[in-house]
Amino acid sequence: MIFISLLKSNESLYLNKNESIKNGSNDILNYFITYLIPILSMDIQDNISLIINFLIFIIIGLLYIKSDNLHLNPLLILINYEIFSIQDNIILTKMSKNELKKRIAEFGFIKVRKIADNIYIERKVIN
After folding, report:
1. How is the beta sheet containing 82-86 ordered, strand by strand?
2. Residue 42 phi/psi, 5° resolution?
3. In this structure, are residues 23 and 82 in contact, taking their beta carbons and an 8 Å threshold?
4. What is the pLDDT of residues 5-58, one digit of tens each?
5. Is 0.85 surpassed by the pTM of this model?
6. DSSP letters for the chain
7. Which phi and psi angles does 90 have, rounded to 5°?
8. Do 25 and 31 touch, CB atoms closer than 8 A?
9. What angle do CA 99, 74, 69 make, to 5 degrees?
10. Closest to 8 (Cα-Cα) out of 98, 115, 102, 127
11. Considering only CA atoms, which of 16, 55, 21 is closest in space to residue 38?
């Protein structure tokens, strides 16, 4: 319920046009590899192997949640989202880096919805 109410919030995130924009989409590969190796080594016939892998996935999941890496999700890439880091904020957007730079240079802000502390998803603005 809290997540749904957060997505309903509309904000304008004001950004400095001279601030560098770092692409965070490459970090998703690390996220994917973290899960890939245990899955490939899992023996589905062995109950001990299943229990150990289950515990590993719980620990990995807790570490990602604890370290605020919820935005690192391979599904975001599949639905064409890019992840950018700007001024200690994480922006999830369907814009390319050049489009984002152009929008910030032109307006000085982007319309977003806050989904967690310093993590925002771009809100589509109809012109």
Report:
1. 11-14, 109-116, 119-122, 89-93, 82-86, 22-23
2. -75, 135
3. yes
4. 445 566 777 776 777 788 876 677 777 777 777 788 888 899 998 898 889 889
5. no
6. -HHHHHHH--EEEE--TTS--EE-TTHHHHHHHHHHHHHHH--TT-HHHHHHHHHHHHHHHHHHHHTT-TT--HHHHHTT-EEEEETTEEEEESS-HHHHHHHHHHHSEEEEEEEETTEEEEPP---
7. -105, 125
8. no
9. 85
10. 115
11. 55
Q: What is the mean pLDDT of residues 85-104?
A: 86
Total residue count of the chain as it appears in this document = 127
State the helix-helix crossing angle for 47-66 and 27-41, rounded to 10 degrees. 160
Structure token pair of residue 47: 């109950």
Determine whether 59 is exposed, middle or buried from the number of CB atoms within 10 Å of its CB (0-12, 13-18, 19+).
Answer: exposed
